[in-house]
Amino acid sequence: MARPQGGFSDGEATFTFNIIKSPSNPVKYELQLFYIITLHKKDLPLLALIQKYFDNKGQELQVTDDNVILTISSIKDLEAVIKHFDEYPLITQKLVDYLLFKQVYTIICNKEHLTLEGFQKIVAIKSVLNKDLSDKLKYEFKDIIPVTRPLVKLPTTVLPSYWLAGFTSAKGHFGVKLSKDSTTITGYQVVLKFTLTQQLRDKLLLENFISFYNCGTFWKSESKDWGVFEVTKFSDVESIIIPFFQKYKVVGVKAKDFASFCFICKMMKEGRHKTEQGLLEIQAIKNNMNRSRTLSESID
């Protein structure tokens, strides 16, 4: 789990902290640091595996109606998190979040947060991390100058395959699209679709996937701040995407979606998608993939 963890956290993890009023504290505030991963409850076994990798650090996994949440927050437990991401660096712009988070962690470890100067450094960091400062904190610390948030440069070498497998486990999608088409025997066209989605701040990374896989296209959402790398050409799916993930495994419920994806590809190669019976089989498989996959099957 060590290697895929990096790419997975690039897609799903949050590095953040809270600043809370505390009259008994020397600077009148206390800090709460958090490393958080939130997944659909279908991926409870995967999140339990991640927690096990971190020596079962953190709070007991929190299960809500739809999600399961891993939270590691104590300074002692976060040591394992810091050690991991120093050894297996993040690649997306989330690396900046991690580096800022680590700065705060180090300030706390050195007890500098108990001094006004150290606390002001933390506020300056918080002002550019994730959701920024609250309006109340902005008013109380209006003289604080935010730190400069640097941009991450893409690796100059080829993206690590293990990282791509982990990132795809978090942000990848193996899907099938059925579209009405009067030119086909069944009246439908079947298209396999592999996508990777990420915030536009990582646009260059998404575009880099095109050269890495030597296929696919990039497009951005018109309504959201997201970019998408997409592969739909059957020959590329069959000869490039599927062999890659057969060698470098995705984890969690996504592995089941990949298995279904591969099965449909095999059906299409055999021409079964051109028959009424084959189309019905593909529709049935599609209806139990991704968000439609049943919870009982996801945790087999």
From TrEMBL:
This is Probable maturase. Keywords: Mitochondrion. Pfam families: LAGLIDADG_1. InterPro entries: Homing_endonucl (IPR027434), LAGLIDADG_dom (IPR004860), LAGLIDADG_Endonuclease (IPR051289). It comes from the Eukaryota. GO terms for cellular component: mitochondrion. GO terms for molecular function: endonuclease activity. The keyword Mitochondrion applies. Residues 7-105, 164-264 form the Homing endonuclease LAGLIDADG domain.
